[in-house]
Design a protein that fits this description.
alpha/beta
Length: 343
């Protein structure tokens, strides 16, 4: 089974090897990376990994600011995607935690009875007080999240989607594919959540903007969860805030974004089942002295960037603001206030 992961990156160098090694463990066979505007060594490391046969790496084709959507449009023309059995579109801070069989993608597909798409609910992992960047696996450092069934006061949660090559897509979105225009009811795909149940009809049809990339989380993740480490360490978050993201240039992440994802009420260690194999896979990658040297270059650049940022008064203020931000997500805090509760 050939499974291609497609992702876009900007200054993600310290995190590349873990993400690649992890996804190889769960059954990804091919990688297509798009990069833009990197100054931390990300693009050089990807070029070397491509030369070694681990990934394919292309410059992001976007002419404007819509980096991710332009890359996904371009990806559909690439043999590494067109010749794949399945396509997995995800970011480098997202890790697919599979709960069935041998905890690999073929096990998830089989458990869901091989539909044409599987949408997996997010679980946002909190910063949980980790301030400094450490060059150790992200999945080992961050273990606390919101209640998986409730995020920011809502029982619906965002998803990412594993797509079979015969899915009748008009185009790929970052979170889910969109059905081909004019598709008849009989030609609609079999599309499940990660418990093997059909996704809600209005989600499939993208019938309402509110539910275009999320659906109710309860009982939707029996076979898999998408662990999303959107915050990581405080220092890494400040760097992320400074650079913007791959989707919108210079996007500002204020403390609302932080607070929505920094709910540490729930501990989940299940993804650490992969750690022994992951550490061995990382050791094999870094046994190549050139790969290890470029990884270390990226790590050094990441740390230097963090130190440079903290010389700016506005970044010092932001760091203090995030350190002291309320633990409750904004929507939950507002609900408690409306109910007149004292928690």
């Amino acid at each position: 089974m050939r499974i291609t992961a497609v992702t876009c990156v900007k200054n993600e160098g310290p995190f590349l090897l873990e993400w690649i090694a992890f996804h190889q463990l769960i059954g990804v066979t091919d990688f297509l990376f798009y990069s833009n505007d990197c100054d931390d060594g990300t693009d050089q490391l990807l070029d070397l990994l491509a030369a070694r046969g681990h990934v394919q790496h292309l410059p992001n084709p976007a002419k404007g600011r819509n980096y991710q959507m332009e890359a996904l449009k371009h990806a559909r023309t690439q043999p590494v995607v067109t010749q794949a059995d399945w396509i997995w579109i995800a970011d480098v801070d997202e890790f697919l935690n599979i709960h069935v069989g041998q905890h690999r993608l073929p096990d998830l597909i089989a458990a869901c009875d091989a539909p044409q798409a599987i949408s997996i609910p997010f679980q946002f992992f909190a910063n949980d007080g980790v301030e400094a960047f450490h060059d150790v696996p992200v999945i080992a450092q961050f273990t606390r999240s919101h209640d998986p069934d409730i995020w920011n006061g809502d029982t619906a949660i965002e998803v990412k989607t594993l797509i079979r090559n015969d899915f009748p897509a008009q185009y790929y979105g970052a979170h889910r594919p969109f059905l081909r225009k004019g598709l008849s009811e009989t030609d609609r795909p079999r599309w499940s959540d990660s418990s093997g149940r059909p996704v809600p009809h209005r989600f499939m049809m993208a019938a309402t903007q509110q539910r275009i990339r999320k659906f109710p989380a309860k009982d939707a993740r029996c076979f898999a969860t998408l662990n999303h480490y959107a915050l990581r360490s405080l220092d890494s978050y400040l760097i992320k805030n400074d650079r913007g993201d791959v989707n919108r240039e210079h996007r500002a992440f204020d403390d609302t974004y932080w607070r929505e994802r920094n709910d540490a009420a729930w501990q989940d260690l299940s993804i650490q089942r992969y750690l022994p194999d992951l550490n061995r896979a990382l050791d094999r990658l870094r046994a190549d002295p050139e790969i290890d040297a470029l990884h270390q270059t990226c790590v050094a650049a990441h740390r230097a960037k963090g130190q440079t940022l903290l010389q700016r008064p506005e970044m010092q203020r932001m760091r203090t603001q995030l350190q002291t931000a309320p633990a409750l997500p904004p929507a939950e805090a507002a609900l408690i206030k409306d109910l007149g509760l004292n928690i």
